[in-house]
Amino acid sequence: MSVIYYGPGEHDSGFVGFRVTKVWSDIYRQKYFSTSAAQSQTDDSIYFRYQRVRAEHQDACWAVESLEYQYQQFVTTNNGNTKPERGLGIHGIVILFAHGYGGKFEPGFSVSQPGKPQKRFLFKNHPFTEAWRLAADHWAQENGILEADHVRIMGSPPSPEQFKRLRHQMNHIEGYDIPVESLRVVFQEQREQLANSRTSRHLQTVSKPPISSLESDVRAWFESEQPSTS
């Protein structure tokens, strides 16, 4: 228990009252609430009850601080047992190459929660952006994530380059044999966006006359509209 009562003669220093302690991470909190001035060491004494409630209130406040700290750690750091190159700076979502049917390695995101099986969002089923949105939504819903953190994580997808680093890690350090073709679907959206951008620039170029030609046509029209001086 984090609230301990010491009656007369029970504490080495002679203290009588309530001791409150709370530990989380490397943080240690401790506070004493003396009841030595109480008429009796029971709830029959108003002062004794007052100090007991103060101790319980302090315990509750530190419990809230501890939970807030744990929550912030959950949404801003990797789980301590996350393997290299998988982590995304939060607990519960990692990138992976799933070893699927036929020996293929399928890239995607994995969302985990204690006591439940992992849920995977693979790029063979969803494009990169959609897979990330689905993973972030599922993670937030399953873990009761605040909307502000949900939005922040949703807007901060990992770089596809991390999958290249993960493949290197798994092949050269962990002994896997993931073919480079497994990365194709990771970068598919990027390739399509680049192709669309090039097409758009090309269409803009061919649909507009050169600026010099346009200026020449305007000048010729303007001169033709001037009154003759002859």
Describe the protein.
- It contains 6 helices and 6 strands.
- Strands 1-2-3 form a 3-stranded antiparallel sheet, covered by helices on one side.
- Helix 2 runs antiparallel to helix 3.
- A hairpin with a 2-residue loop joins strand 5 (105-113) and strand 6.
- 18% of the residues are buried.
- The chain is elongated.
- The chain folds into 2 domains: 3-76; 93-188, no CATH class.
- The mean pLDDT is 89.
- It has 230 residues and is of the alpha+beta class.
Top keywords for this entry?
3-stranded antiparallel sheet; single chain; alpha+beta; 230 residues
Helix-strand sequence:
EEEHEEEHHHHH
Radius of gyration: 33 Å
Low-confidence stretches: none
Mean pLDDT, all residues: 89
Write down the overall geometry.
elongated
Strand order of the largest sheet: 1-2-3
Count up the domains. 2
The total strand number stands at 6
Q: How does the major sheet shape up?
A: 3 strands, antiparallel
**Helix amount:** 40-55%
Helical segment count: 6
Determine the oligomeric state from the structure.
Answer: single chain
Report how far apart the termini are.
Answer: 110 Å
Helix-strand makeup class: alpha+beta
Beta-strand fraction estimate: 15-25%
Quick overview of this protein structure:
This protein is an alpha+beta fold.
Strand and helix map with partners:
Elements: E1 3-6, E2 17-24, E3 27-34, H1 46-76, E4 93-99, E5 105-113, E6 116-122, H2 128-143, H3 147-154, H4 161-172, H5 188-207, H6 211-224
Antiparallel strand pairs: 1-2, 2-3, 4-5, 5-6
Helix pairs in contact: 2-3
